[in-house]
Amino acid sequence: MNDSQDLEARLRQIGARRYHNLHPFHRLLHTGRCTKGQVQAWALNRYYYQAMIPLKDASLIGRCEDQALRREWRKRLEDHDGNDDHPGGIERWLKLTDGLGLDRADVTSTRLLLPATRFAVQAYVHYVRERSLLEAVASCLTELFSPQIITERMRGMLAHYNYVTPEILSYFDKRPPQAARDATFALDWVKQHARTAEQQQAVVDTLIFKCDVLWSMMDALHYAYVTPGLIPPGAFVPRVSDG
Amino acid sequence: MNDSQDLEARLRQIGARRYHNLHPFHRLLHTGRCTKGQVQAWALNRYYYQAMIPLKDASLIGRCEDQALRREWRKRLEDHDGNDDHPGGIERWLKLTDGLGLDRADVTSTRLLLPATRFAVQAYVHYVRERSLLEAVASCLTELFSPQIITERMRGMLAHYNYVTPEILSYFDKRPPQAARDATFALDWVKQHARTAEQQQAVVDTLIFKCDVLWSMMDALHYAYVTPGLIPPGAFVPRVSDG
Q: What are the pLDDT digits (tens) for B88-120?
């Protein structure tokens, strides 16, 4: 195995052990064992992650002297922010929160977020701004594993929750091919640019960091809305009728 | 009531509702219901908060054009980092982690932290770096409430855990007068400089943010080490003999 194959194997191993598809909250969500209030809390918190993605991508472009990389990375801005003809990923995520009965102003103001969601997402944005370009690129590598979780999620949520329709899940329709394209590009780029052992270790550490971001968002949801179910002061409280 | 008295009343009300002395994990800790492993996890995670305090204070000094404020704020650096003759707060915190049987390299490397601890503390550091000077100063106002929790904690931990001695708690001996001095100064400064309704609201929002930082650190400890007791991948795992 050459060095860059070895790096890829190490990255895939991290995904197999630390990607948030393994988190118990996702198992509850995908197998129909969440109340509507818990599904709402997940969608409302995850909105903030979606909403901050273009900021972290623009920060990467804003410090990148390689035009080809800037041009490639710009696709991500369009995917999330949309254009005059097509809504982007953030807009499609709001179809989900609308469809779940959440008030749009509650969602977009982010005033009901779990603080841990905000801190985790901001840690991601700051990481992309402050670390090396190699680490900034590598931090998207969780997308290597996202097509699988998205497929699982769509199938599970459509099967188990009668208020979930294909229309409100339209975000997930579009994402797997985009994520696969982006992850392939980023993996190739990282394999090409991480030449020393230190650089390869930095890539590995970055993927661990990013898995920690996603995992800690799940921990916070699980703690606040499932077990022990202690909602921090000021965060979203489901209506009693939504459980 | 004048404006600045009104501001102080609003701040004290936030403390009464959102300060982390109200968190169930602290109740367990202070009433002797934590295992040694849980006490270790608390001390190890809280170390990171202590260790980052001088960085946030230096960041504040580093952007402050008011010499009197810089000079006042410099006391905090000395309190935490010490000088040739006296160890500072960080060193005294390590007496606690030593006394609890934790390996010093495990603690100072921060490699066993809960990711949520890291993200919350970094959110605090970034807040001080990026927000207005008024907000940066106001973010220490949780110290208004800390003498009380420290007294409660010392009394409770000494009474309930046979491995806790006054010597390993020496951090807490020194803190209440320092915190009271710092909080009084910061409160007066904020009352004097927050003149508009918007500025006063920014101070209130800052204290809420800071309470969220401390509260989310408690949530993460409680989730990982008490209920449901799911330790995130890579974080500190107590030895079986320590529970």
A: 999 999 999 999 999 999 999 999 999 999 999
CATH of domain B3-227: 1.20.910.10
Asked if residues A11 and A207 have their Cβ atoms less than 8 Å apart, the reply is: yes
Of A18, A118, A119, the CB nearest to B233: A18
Spatial contact of B153 and B29, defined as CB atoms under 8 Å apart? yes
Determine the Cα–Cα distance for residues B60 and B136; give it in Å rounded to an integer.
7
User: CATH second-level architecture of A3-226?
Assistant: Up-down Bundle (1.20)
B192-to-B33, B181, B186 alpha-carbon distances in Å: 43, 17, 10
| Residue A232: DSSP 8-state | P
Q: How far is CA A234 from CA A14, A110, A183, A189, B206, in A?
A: 35, 11, 36, 42, 14
Instruction: Please state, rounded to an integer, the average pLDDT across all residues of chain B.
Output: 96
Location of structure tokens 């594993």 = A145
Task: Please enumerate residues of A whose Cβ is less than 8 A from a Cβ of B.
Answer: 17-18, 24, 114-116, 118-120, 122-123, 126, 208, 211-213, 215-216, 219-220, 222-224, 227-228, 230, 232-234
B40: closest CA among B148, B112, B124, B147?
B112
Long-range contacts of B123-127 (CB under 8 A, 24+ apart): B123/A118, B123/A119, B123/A122, B123/A123, B123/B213, B124/B49, B124/B52, B124/B56, B124/B210, B124/B213, B125/B52, B125/B55, B125/B56, B125/B59, B126/A122, B126/A126, B127/B206, B127/B209
| SS3 assignment, position B65 | coil
Q: Is the distance from CB of B40 to CB of B238 less than 8 angstroms?
A: yes
Angle at B220 between CA B79 and CA B126, to 5 degrees: 50
ipTM of the complex in this document:
0.91
Q: Which residue of B has its CA nearest to A218?
A: B232
Residue of B nearest to A25 (CA): B230
